[in-house]
Amino acid sequence: MSYRFFQNKECAYFKCKDAEKLNCIFCYCPIYLYEDCGGNYIVLDNGVKDCSKCLLPHSDNGYDYIIQFIKNKNKKP
Q: Per-domain residue ranges for the chain?
């Protein structure tokens, strides 16, 4: 098993996206709070960020993208 990929097939939401390649390691996206996250999201009328159509954390390169994004944000000037 890879530390970059995990599936929880018992999860009630598992079939909500492409189940064959669905990576559950970032079920909750650690870069959700960033406007420049690079994901496919919209901002609702009430100001809430809706990422329900975003597959970035679950994609083949999602792990690497998120880890690099966090590293770049945490670089000291």
A: 14-73
